[in-house]
Structure formats: C-alpha cells, structure tokens
Amino acid sequence: MDAVDQRLITILRHDGRSSLSNLATELGLTRATVRARLERLKNSGEIIGFTVILRSDAIDLPVRGIMMIEIGGRSADAVIKALNGYSEVSAIHTTNGKWDLVVELGTSDLIEFDQVLRRIRLIPGITNSETSLLLATPRSVKARL
After folding, report:
1. Which of 30, 68, 102, 104 is an S-S bond match for 91, by CB 3.0 to 4.6 Å?
2. pLDDT per residue as tens digits for the range 57-67
3. More confident residue, 127 or 56
C-alpha cells in the first residue's frame, strides 16, 4: 500500500459513500485509476467492507470511557456474557498484561456512567478495574460530524 492508497482510505474513512469522481478530484487521479485502486484494495483484503455509522452512534452517548477489567479464576466467559447484556457497552476486547478485558462504554451523562460502573463492578468474577473517561477524539476511523 503506497501513500496514495493511504490517502484514499483516509478519505473513505470519513465518507465511505464518496463518489469515484470526488475521490479522483481529491486525489488528483482519474476515475479509472481510483476504481482500479479500490478494486485492488478490496481484492487484496485491505478493504473488507463499508459500513454506515448512525448519528445516534456518534452523539447520543456524550460520556464515553474505557474500563480495564481484571478477572479472577476462570470466569472470563461468564464476565463477557454478563457485559454483553449492557446496552452501554459498545465493545469488549480481551487483552494481555495486568488487565484481562478492555471495555468501551458510553452513556448520556456522568450519573448514568457512574451507575453503570457500579453495576459492572458487581459482576461475579471481576476482581479489579480501572476506568478512564474519554475527553476528546482527535483521530478516529469513525465518521466526522
């Protein structure tokens, strides 16, 4: 992948529906060249798909955070299953090191965020946690608003 491919992907991350004409203009290439590059990126597996990001996904949960969770014993599957039941949980990642899970959370306000943290900490098998609020997002692969 060269610098032009990287610029193409950056543009598509911000507007996955950008037309070939717009992409070509922004990149200073012909439509045929952009189409060929897109096909090559899809065929090679670099681009595996396009998606829609809803406005509600981007702004209805203004209080966001990352919760690192330590799990005792062999209860990881049960903890993950319990976390899957929380609508405030947008992603669960397994990891290595001190923390067993990294959980992305979002709520409408700090009071609700605190309540969710308290409920999560009561899940059997969770032995320790640390949470950081996300203050700003200078870079994201999600939509720009």
Report:
1. 104
2. 555 678 999 99
3. 127
Q: Domain extents for the chain?
A: 3-44, 55-134
Cα gap 10→44, rounded to integer Å: 17
CA–CA gap between residue 119 and residue 121 (Å, rounded)? 5
Alpha helices in the chain (DSSP H): 3-14, 20-27, 31-44, 55-59, 76-83, 110-121
pTM over 0.85: no
Q: Which amino acid is at 84?
A: N
CA quadruple 130, 133, 136, 140: dihedral positive or negative?
positive
Residues in the chain: 145
Q: Residue 133: its pLDDT value, please?
A: 96
